Amino acid sequence: xxxxxxxxxxxxxxxxxxxxVLIETTAARVTAVHGDPAHPANRGRLCSKGAALGLTxxxxxxxxxxxxxxxxxxxxxxxxxxxxxxxxxxxLVATVQRHGPDAIGFYISGQLLTEDYYVFxxxxxxxxxxxNIDTNSRLCMSSAVxxxxxxxxxxxxxxxxxxxxxxxxxxxxxxxxxxxxxxxxRRLEAARASARKPRxxxxxxxxxxxxxxxxxxxxxxxxxxxxxxxxxxHLLLWDGKLDYDYITAHTEGFLDLKAAVHQYPPTLxxxxxxxxxxxxxxxxQWFGESRAVLSLYCQxxxxxxHGTANNAALINLHLATGQIGRPGAGPFSLTGQPNAMGGRExxxxxxxxxxxxxxxxxxxxxxVAAAWGVQDVPAAPGKTAIEMFEAVRAGQIKILxxxxxxxxxxxxxxxxxxAALERAELVIVQEAYTTTETTAYxxxxxxxxxxxxxxxxxxxxxxxxxxxxxxxPPPGSARPDWExxxxxxxxxxxxxxxxxxxxxxxxxxxxxxxxxxxxxxGRDLDITGISYELLESGPQQWPYRSGExxxxxxxxxxxxxxxxxxxxxxxxxxxxxTAEPPDARFPLILNTGRLRxxxxxxxxxxxxxxxxxHAPEPVIExxxxxLQRRGLSTGDLVSVRSRRGAVTLKxxxxxxxxxxxxxxxxxxxxxxxxxxxxxxxxxDAFDPVSKQPxxxxxxxxxxxxxxxxxxxxxxxxxxDHDACDLTRLRRYLEKFDYASCGRFGSTHEGLILRAAHRSxxxxxxxxxxxxxxxxxxxxxLMAYEDRARGMSRLLRVHGGRLVAxxxxxxxxxxxxxxEWLDAGHSTLETGARLLAPSALPPRATPLASRVICxxxxxxxxxxxxxxxxVNAHEPAVYGYLQRELKCGTGCGSCxxxxxxxxxxxxxxxxx
Length: 911
Ligand code: SF4
Known about the structure:
By secondary structure, the protein is of the alpha/beta class. The N and C termini lie far apart (about 65 Å).
C-alpha cells in the first residue's frame, strides 16, 4: 500500500499569537497536531487549545451540504450547490435593484483568511456598492485600530514578539495573556526568569493569573484607564522623566496634552481609579526609569465606550517617554482573533478600505475603484456590527450574509440581535458547523471548509503573514469560503454588469492574494515583496516592499510617522464614566472575558472533552463579601439580571474580583446553557469613534434562585467520542428554569446535563429525556424510586458497562459521581452506591475537583494534597509537583495556576 502519511505546516486558528502548527495526516485523516519548531511565533510550543486541535477534526456537528428554505414556513432542506447559489444570487440582485445596495449587509469574521476577507469586501464594496460589511473584529480590535490611527497615523502595531526578550518593563493593561495569549506568556515567563529580570505591571480590575504574578497590580475600577494613563503621564512630567528631544523631533500636540494631564494629580487619580496613591507613584517611577517599556494590551482597553481614548492615552505615554521604535519598547496591541490583522489589511470593515485606506478619503476611494475596475466605491461609511443588526431589525437591511461567526452568541444585547435575525427577509449563514446558535436562523446554510481544510494566509499580532494550508479535504461538499463568495459574485455580476469583464477572475487563492498585495503598494503595510513562493520559506512581517530581502521587525525606528506632518500626534483625552454605572437597582458591575481552555462560542473547542475539565460549566464569580452579604455560598444557583435580560447560573466565591464586581466567561451561549448566555446581559453601547461595544461593564443585580428540584444526567461513551453527541441533550436545555450541558472525562468520553426547576417538571418531559438516553424499562435498567422524598435514580448498563445515569429530585451528595464514572469503577459497585437510599460517597475518591493540568490530567485536589506533603519554597515546590504529579510538564498553560496554588498555600502557612 502506498504511504499516504504527510505533514502539513499551517497556523493555529485561535488567538492572535498565530502559532505555527504541523498537521500530521494519514489517509486524509488528521492523526496529530504539533507545534512547528520553525515558526518564530511559538518555536514549537502550543497552548492547551492549540495542542488539542487534532481532536477537533471529527464529523460531529459539521455542515456537509447546502441547505435551503424558500419560505419561513418551510424547514431547511438539503439542496445542490448550483440551485442554492442561483437562488441566493437572484435574491441579492433583486434586492439591490429594488431597494438599493444598502439593503444588504455582510457580517464576517476575524477567523476568515485574508483572501476570504478580500473577496467578501470586493463583492460588497466593488460589485454591489455598499459599505455594509463589518466583522466580529468590531467586538475585538476596532478601538486598537482607531487608537493607532489617531496617534501614530496608521493601524500598525509597532512592536514585535522579539521585543519580549529586550524589554525591562512589561506594562500589561486590560489583557490576561496567561489565559488569552498563552504562548506569548510562556515567552514572558522565560524573559522574567532570565538574568535581566524585567518587571511586570498589570492594570486590570480583576486579579487574573497574569495580575497575580505581576510585580505590581493596579486593580483599577472598571472604565478608569484614561484617568490612570493621564495620571501616570502627570507624574512622569512632574518628575522630569519625559523625553523632550523625542517630543520635539517627532510629535505634535504636546502642549494640549500637557494641559490635559495637568488635571490628573495623583490624589484625584487614586480616587477615580480606586487604587492607593503609592502604587500609582510606584508605577510611574518604574515606567520612568525603565530603559525599554513594552505595553501589551487587549480587550480590557478595546471593549469600552472609551476604547479609542483608552488606546490613545496609553500610546501618549510611549510617545512622551520615547518608548517606541526601539528594541523592547512600544505600545503593542494583542489581537484577539487569529486574523484580525489580515482583515484590517484588506479594509474588511464598514469604515475601512483595502490596503489601510480610508473610506472618507476621495483619493483612496479612487485608487481602489481604479484597481478593481469599477466606477467608484461608496463614500458613506457602512453599518458597523451593532448598527448593522439595528438596521436589520428596523427593516432597512433585508438580506444578511453571515460568514464564519456566530452573532447569536457573541454580540451584546442578544434579545435585539435575535429580533433582527427574525426580522431579516433572508439570512445566509456560511459556516463549517451546524451547531452554532446562528445557524438556527439561517434560511440558507452554505457549508464551509474550516481549519485544516483550506488554503490562504493569516497575519498575527506582530504583522507576520503566514501560510495556512489544507491538510485534508473538507467533508461532504463543503467548500473554501473564498470560492463560495466568488461563485455568488460571478452569478450576480452576470446580472448587474453583463458586458463588463469579471471583477472576480481568480483561478486560485494565490490569485486573490496577489491582487490584494498589489493594492498595498506604497502604503504603510506594503507587502509587494511577499509572495506565496516566499512564504514557503516561512512567515514574513510587513512592511516588506518589493526588492527588500526582509520585512520590518519594528516600525517607526526613525521617528517618522505616516501622518501628513510625519509626526505622531498626542491625543488629549479625559476620563468619562462607563455607559452604565452601577446604581441601587443594578449595584454590581459585570465583566466578561476568556477562559484558558475555550475559544469564543466553543463551536470548535466544545467538541473536545478534555477542554471542559478546567472549567466545566458557566459560573459567575463574585467577591466572598458579596456572597456573604446575600447569604449565598459557592455552588448556589443565582438569578442574574441586567436591564436587557436575565440568566440563571452557579455562583463562585472568588477574590479575583473586587467587592461590587463580578465576572462571567464569554464562552457559553444557548447551545450550552438555557437562555441567551452571558450576552443576554451585556450592553450594546459603543465607542463613538471605533464603534466597539462595551462588553466589559454592564450593571447587574443578583439574587438566589429558588429551584429546589434538581437533575443530573450523565452519559458515558467509554472511549467513543462519536457516541457522545450533544444534540440529544441540547434540546432539553430550554425545558428547565436552569440547565447547562457539556462534556466530562479524561479517561472516558462523557456528556453531562445539569438542570434545576422550581418544582418537578412534567412526567412526559422526563419520560422523553429518559427515552432519549435509552432508560426505558428493560433488563439493562436499574432503578431506585422514593416518591415521598422526590427522588428518582435510573442507571443503564450495557455490555457490562454503566452507560447512562439519571438522578432527579433531591440529588444532594452526588458530587463525587462524575470523577467516579471517569475513573471507570466497576458497574456493580457504582450501582450499589447509587441505588442505596442515601448517597454513599466512596471514601477513597477525591471530591469533585477541576483539572488544572490538562496534559497530565492533574486536578486541583491532587495538587493541594501534594502540597501538604512538601515544605519548601517556590520554585523548589514547583519542581516537586512536576516530579510527583507531572503537572506543568506539557504545554505549560497550567503553570500560572500551579504557581498561584503554591503561593496561596505559602500565604496560608505564614498566616
Ligand atoms: Fe493557538 Fe494557543 Fe498559540 Fe494562541 S497561543 S495561537 S491559541 S496555540
